[in-house]
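User: My collaborator sent over this chain with a note saying "see what the structure looks like." That's all I know about it. Can you take a look?
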Amino acid sequence: MTKSRPFFLYTLMVFGYAFLYLPIASVVAFSFNETRSVSLWKGFSLQWYSRLLDNSQVLDAAQLSLLIAAIASTLAVIIGTMAALALARFGRFKGRGLLSMLSSAPLVMPDVMLGISALFLFITLQQLIGWPHGRGMDTITIAHVTLCVCYVTVVVRSRLVQTDHSLEEAAMDLGARPWKVFFLITLPMIWPALVAGWLLAFTLSLDDVVIASFTSGPGTSTLPVLILSKVRFGVTPEINALATLIIVAVCIGVSLAGWLMHRSRVNPR
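Assistant: Without extra context I'll predict from the sequence alone. Here is the result:
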């Protein structure tokens, strides 16, 4: 009974990893297929990567998605950090419960509801003040900031709760002003949470389809929305090539992060 248990666990693990990663491996393999078939192998070719790099629509959508994700994640870190500081450092104040609820509501709210709400908001603003002039990059960015702020707030707040507040109190007792305490003491202590929150917000914004579908307009489709629209007419080798490039970028990023973490543990300062 004891000997059969490891075999069962190993078998379960193999099937689990195969279920997760074989589809990804097939996408990578058929991105090098010579023909347009995504199920029948005809030979090795790099023509789909060449066509992908010549596809201005895909490149423009990728550039737009990266720009929106960078802006949205940066704004989310700024707003989320301020909200986390208020919840973790300011004690009980009027409106604290409302702030806590608003900063956590998008975590459990369906993306469809967030997208519809943002769409109605922009339509109402356009009727009242004439802004925004249609839906585009600005509306997508604002909607993504709304989505990402709550995740950053949770990450940074948990880090602030774990840090030693006595260091900040000692600095203020010695005459340091609050802004100086924040930049010289608090910020260095919570920077890993800020980086983690930024990366999480960047990933959420870059990966979003539902909210971007409601808040985007003609000519401002993000990369996930463009991929979804193309897949509806059938998967093509160009989509496989694009997915392969994204997989490679993610693998490089994860490997680099793992190497840096391992290096910091082996050679601590």
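A starting point for your reply to your collaborator: The mean pLDDT is 87.
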